[in-house]
Every structure is written in structure tokens, then in C-alpha cells.
């Protein structure tokens, strides 16, 4: 998208605002599909948690994607967006048996990641096919908060518990139709991922009726110029060869599944915010924007990097700025970052704002969440309205009768 297009969107819909480029989403989907074209049966299940706007879900469905969900609400969104139940996989963590049973009633595929629920579900519903999430004890993510396959992770059933797992399956006579893993986000070392895949192949040999093997996702996208990213093409070539070999060994053509989220939508997203104040201190120049970590929490939560451009002055002289928000505590997006000279009223573009940005937004400080706009075929389409004060108080119950307004005390006067 051109800077002029983004500025027009900010002018039309106000700021702050999230903008998503459908063309980039489509090209990322096609890139991943092409990387594994030598696999006969490939299924990409978009991870709804990355960006769950129903229009984005409909776009994914139109591309032939399945849907990876982690809550019953995401399952319901997927069904509303037109996904068939069998195209949705439910991969929660630490939820109740009741929530898993509710998802099963809707006809979606079930993925269980702990022995307790596996035994309970298998005992009650042995005829319902179940996928098992394995923890391969491989550290493959780029940050401890998003690396979920290591030995201390809360996710998945440990490979050291396979004997216990097999005993549960044998006793309950349940049907295991899939094996799954997810090592973490921002994977760079393909060999580490392939090593974890071998653990998954070895585990799969214990089950005779598999339909698919799900390798998770976590592919790293570039966040800055010349940044390192997962080499999808190399991974596709190596894993496809090994997967096809395994299918021959297994005696059945299995489906190779992935659950990409960030890879598909991160680069497609921009977050636009206006500069309220440029403030010079003794050592720092602050650019304070009309937003905060209530709208873009990842830099404060993960230390994530978002490239920031001044699209109001893209040719201006570069200076050092610390870009901060309006939340009344530490609220920093970037420290001493080189950005084209900023003036009050300029619009800043935060890149890689498609994944885990709106979905992690909140009403902290009682601020409204921004609108979402889809840039599709050269047009800006509003896909979520900006919140209003009515939205902020919609579900609050007015108990004003409990606390009547304080009345002003009457001053005592002395009669003469």
C-alpha cells in the first residue's frame, strides 16, 4: 500500500486505526502452499487467535484454509464465517472437559493436550476421533513467552509420557486420528524444527488409524529491513521429502497440516496513529501518539519490534525519537529510533500489525478500541467500527440505588 492510501484511510476513518492488506494475506497463503506442493494432501489451518475479525476469517475460508481455534468462541466465529465443522480444529490449553464436549457437539475436530482430559473424554466419548498434542521438548521459539515446546512448557503431553498415553488409549478404546505439535513462534533454525518433526514421526508409529499429522507453525516473518526469517521454501522441500517417505512407511497417504497465524497476517497489517506531542527533555525526544499499549501491547509484553514510519513526512531528515503512548505508566513502542522528522499532527505507521494486535487490544484507561479497515482491490472497507462510550458501558449493570449521590452538607448557622 502507498503512504497516500494510508493517509486517506486515517483521514476517512480517524486514528488510531488498524489496516489490513488482503493482497499480502493471499500471497502469503500461496507462498506457503507452494512450498509444500510436492505433498499430495496439505491442509493449512489459519490460527484464528492471530486476527479473528470475521471478514478476515471469510477471506481465509475463500482461500481453502481450515481454521485452528483455541476457544469455543473462536469455533463459533469460524462456523459463522462459513467454515465447515470438519475444517475446524479445536486446540485449547487447560480448558474444561465441558468446553471440549461443547466443541465436539458442534462437529469440529478435537485436539487434546493433557492426560487427565484425554482419559475423561475417551472414557465418555470413545467413538469421537481425537488428535493428541505432543510436547517434543524442543525449544524452537524466539522468546520464552512464545516458545511452547520446551520441557517446562504447559502445552502438550510430554514424549516421556507416551507409555501412559498409550495405556489410556488402549483402555478407553478411543480413536486417535491425528498427532500434533507446536514448538513456538519465530522459528529460525530449520534443523531444530526437523528434529522435532522426527520425534513426531516416531510418536505417530504408535497409532494405526491416523488421518493427519499437524506440525504447528511459528514461522518467523521479517520485522525490519534485511531481517532474518524462516526459509519456508527450504523447510518445504526438506519436510515434504521426509513426510512423503513417512507416508510410504506408514502405508497410508496422510494429510500434512500446519496452523499458520502470524505468517499469514502479520506483514499485511499496519497500525496508524497521530502524534499528539513532540517533547524534548534533557536527553530524549519523545513522540507521544494518540494510542498506547491498550492498542498495541506486543512491544511492552514481548519486547517485539515494529518498524515505525512517519508517512506524513517520508522524505524528512532522520532524527532519533522515543515513541510513546498516552497510558499513565511506562508505555514505550520504540526507544531512540531513527525516524523521519516528526511534527505534531503527523501520522505514524507501525508495520507488522496484523497479528496479535487488535486481538490483544483492551479498554485499559477506559479507552475505546480502534476500527479495523480492509484494503481490498484498491478500496478501503470498514470491517469493524470504532468503539463508542455506549460500547464501554454496554454490559455494566447500573447499581446506582446502592450508592445514592452524596448530598452537600448544610452549613450550621447560629441565630442571633
From TrEMBL:
Domain Orn/DAP/Arg decarboxylase 2 N-terminal span(s) in chain numbering: 24-266
Residues recorded with modification N6-(pyridoxal phosphate)lysine: 49
Needed co-factor(s): pyridoxal 5'-phosphate
Domain Orn/DAP/Arg decarboxylase 2 C-terminal: 18-354
Molecular function GO labels: diaminopimelate decarboxylase activity; pyridoxal phosphate binding
E.C. number(s) listed in UniProt: 4.1.1.20
Top enzyme class: lyase
Sequence positions that bind pyridoxal 5'-phosphate: 218, 356
Active-site residues, record numbering mapped to chain: 328 (proton donor)
Amino acids binding substrate: 298, 302, 329, 356
Lyase found in the keyword field: yes
Reactions catalysed according to its record: meso-2,6-diaminopimelate + H(+) = L-lysine + CO2
Keywords linked to the UniProt accession: Amino-acid biosynthesis, Decarboxylase, Lyase, Lysine biosynthesis, Pyridoxal phosphate
Pathway: Amino-acid biosynthesis; L-lysine biosynthesis via DAP pathway; L-lysine from DL-2,6-diaminopimelate: step 1/1
Keyword Amino-acid biosynthesis: yes
GO terms under biological process: lysine biosynthetic process via diaminopimelate
Record family assignment: Belongs to the Orn/Lys/Arg decarboxylase class-II family. LysA subfamily.
Function as written in the Swiss-Prot or TrEMBL entry: Specifically catalyzes the decarboxylation of meso-diaminopimelate (meso-DAP) to L-lysine.
Subunit and interaction comment: Homodimer.
Name assigned to this protein: Diaminopimelate decarboxylase
Native source species: Maribacter vaceletii
Amino acid at each position: 500500500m502507498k503512504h497516500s492510501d494510508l493517509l486517506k484511510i486515517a483521514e476517512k476513518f480517524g486514528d488510531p486505526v488498524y489496516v489490513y492488506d488482503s493482497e499480502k494475506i493471499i500471497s502469503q497463503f500461496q507462498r506457503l502452499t507452494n512450498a509444500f506442493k510436492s505433498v499430495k494432501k496439505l491442509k493449512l489451518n489459519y490460527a484464528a487467535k492471530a486476527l479473528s475479525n470475521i471478514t478476515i476469517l471469510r477471506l481465509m475460508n475463500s482461500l481453502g484454509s481450515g481454521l485452528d481455534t483455541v476457544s469455543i468462541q473462536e469455533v463459533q466465529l469460524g462456523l459463522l464465517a462459513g467454515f465447515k465443522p470438519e475444517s475446524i480444529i479445536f486446540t485449547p490449553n487447560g480448558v474444561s472437559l465441558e468446553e471440549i464436549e461443547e466443541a465436539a457437539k458442534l462437529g469440529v475436530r478435537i485436539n487434546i493436550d493433557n492426560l487427565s482430559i484425554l482419559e475423561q473424554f475417551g472414557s465418555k466419548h470413545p467413538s469421537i476421533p481425537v488428535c493428541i498434542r505432543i510436547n517434543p521438548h524442543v525449544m524452537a521459539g524466539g522468546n520464552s513467552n512464545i516458545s511452547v515446546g520446551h520441557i517446562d512448557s504447559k502445552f502438550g503431553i510430554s514424549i516421556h509420557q507416551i507409555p501412559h498415553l498409550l495405556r489410556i488409549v488402549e483402555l478407553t478404546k478411543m480413536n486417535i486420528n491425528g498427532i500434533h505439535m507446536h514448538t513456538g513462534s519465530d522459528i529460525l533454525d530449520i534443523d531444530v524444527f526437523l528434529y522435532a518433526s522426527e520425534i513426531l514421526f516416531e510418536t505417530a508409529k504408535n497409532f494405526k488409524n491416523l488421518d493427519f499429522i499437524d506440525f504447528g507453525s511459528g514461522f518467523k516473518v521479517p520485522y525490519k529491513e534485511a531481517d532474518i526469517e524462516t526459509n519456508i521454501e527450504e523447510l518445504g522441500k526438506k519436510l515434504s521429502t521426509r513426510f512423503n517417505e513417512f507416508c510410504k512407511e506408514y502405508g497410508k497417504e496422510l494429510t500434512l497440516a500446519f496452523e499458520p497465524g502470524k505468517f499469514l497476517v502479520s506483514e499485511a497489517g499496519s497500525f496508524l496513529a497521530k502524534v499528539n506531542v513532540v517533547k524534548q527533555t534533557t536527553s530524549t525526544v519523545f513522540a507521544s501518539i494518540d494510542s498506547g499499549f491498550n492498542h498495541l501491547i506486543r512491544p511492552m509484553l514481548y519486547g517485539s519490534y515494529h518498524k515505525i514510519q512517519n508517512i506524513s513526512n517520508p522524505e524528512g531528515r532522520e532524527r532519533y525519537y522515543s515513541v510513546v503512548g498516552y497510558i499513565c505508566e511506562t508505555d514505550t513502542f520504540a526507544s531512540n529510533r531513527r525516524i523521519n522528522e516528526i511534527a505534531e499532527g503527523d501520522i505514524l505507521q507501525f508495520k507488522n500489525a496484523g497479528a496479535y494486535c487488535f486481538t490483544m487490544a483492551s479498554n485499559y484507561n477506559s479507552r475505546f478500541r480502534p476500527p479495523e479497515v480492509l484494503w481490498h482491490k484498491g478500496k478501503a472497507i470498514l470491517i469493524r467500527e470504532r468503539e463508542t462510550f455506549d460500547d464501554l458501558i454496554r454490559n455494566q449493570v447500573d447499581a446506582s440505588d446502592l450508592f445514592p449521590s452524596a448530598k452537600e452538607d448544610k452549613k450550621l448557622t447560629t441565630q442571633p
